[in-house]
Design goal:
Layout: E1 10-14, H1 23-28, E2 33-40, E3 44-45, H2 49-59, E4 62-68, H3 74-88, E5 100-102, H4 112-130, E6 135-139, E7 155-158, E8 176-183, E9 192-197, H5 201-210, H6 222-238, H7 250-259, H8 271-281, H9 284-291
Parallel strand pairs: 1-2, 2-4, 4-5, 5-6, 6-7, 7-8
Antiparallel strand pairs: 1-9, 2-3, 8-9
Helix pairs in contact: 3-4, 6-8, 7-8
């Protein structure tokens, strides 16, 4: 694989282990992107996920979430993807970078075939739910477990060395390289992982844009995507039906009331409100309102 470049965009990845972070100092140090842990398994959520997402975004960094995969069956992998997606819905920010599957170890001593079935199940489900092509994070050695078919996903590879990562069946280039786990930068107490994108900051911004929406070549059904998002949001909202209207729903409620689509937002769990938010996010509500 290729080596690092002098003009490549620099970033970090964090979790609750980094504690409270001064994101303005991180941005001022020259970092332009950050991956942050969102979830793990079928129920765990990183306690600093939402605050890291909102504050890093406000400081000017390009942000992306990752999920640590524990699954040992394809069914469990799909459940973890659902949990990851529902965790993303709790953040009051828009993520720039695609969602990441962190699959780096094999404590269950699974076969190579099982590892690939699990990875493909998780990736297909999170791609269906988000409409974005996810990124695979893994170590250079563990990446040898993945079939060449998984090479269609961008690679974020871990290799703590001055030497470039070596080729593996799925990839002969990396999109992101985690080249150190002992970084020291302003705004963070203790060590932090250091990463590099395989291009300039402008090229990273373009990478984010290209991976924002599904392409027609993937055959993504927009109706299925909408239905899956509504279903996930229904589950989320019905768990907290008496809480105040979430901030993420406010734009849709305002637009919906102005267009006459809704007259009340008292019941946060009704499918109509969830569907309305999804239509707004997809731009369908705005276009319909403009025509009327």
């Amino acid at each position: 694989m290729q080596n690092r470049g002098n003009n490549h965009a620099q970033g970090i990845d964090v979790s609750h282990w980094q504690g409270t972070i001064d994101w303005d100092k991180v941005y001022s140090s020259g970092k332009s992107f950050v991956f942050m842990k969102a979830s793990q398994g079928t129920s765990r959520v990183d306690p600093n996920f939402k605050i890291n997402a909102s504050r890093a975004k406000a400081a000017g960094l390009l942000i992306g979430p990752y999920h640590f995969l524990d699954a040992i069956t394809p069914g469990a992998a799909r459940q973890e993807a659902q949990h990851f997606y529902e965790t993303l819905l709790t953040a009051d920010v828009e993520f720039d970078l695609p969602p990441v599957m962190d699959y780096e170890s094999n404590p269950g001593r699974l076969s190579k075939q099982s590892i690939n079935e699990i990875a493909k199940s998780f990736l297909a489900e999170i791609e269906r739910l988000t409409g974005r092509t996810p990124i695979i994070y893994t170590g250079n050695s563990f990446a040898q477990q993945f079939d060449a078919e998984l090479g269609r996903y961008p690679l974020w590879v871990a290799r703590y060395s001055n030497q470039a990562p070596y080729d593996v069946p799925g990839w002969n280039t990396w999109s992101f390289w985690q080249y150190s786990d002992t970084g020291s930068i302003p705004g963070i107490t203790g060590n932090v992982d250091l990463n590099e994108f395989s291009g300039t900051v402008k090229e990273l911004q373009r990478f984010c844009q290209l991976h924002t929406e599904p392409s027609e070549s993937k055959g993504t059904d927009s109706n299925s995507l909408l239905e899956s998002r509504i279903s996930a949001l229904e589950r989320r909202l019905n768990m907290s039906g008496t809480e105040p209207l979430p901030k993420w729903a406010e734009p849709a409620v305002i637009a919906g009331k102005q267009s006459g689509a809704i007259t009340t937002s008292a019941d946060k769990g009704v499918p109509e409100l969830v569907a309305l938010q999804m239509l707004y996010n997809l731009g369908l509500l705005e276009s319909k309102t403009q025509k009327s």
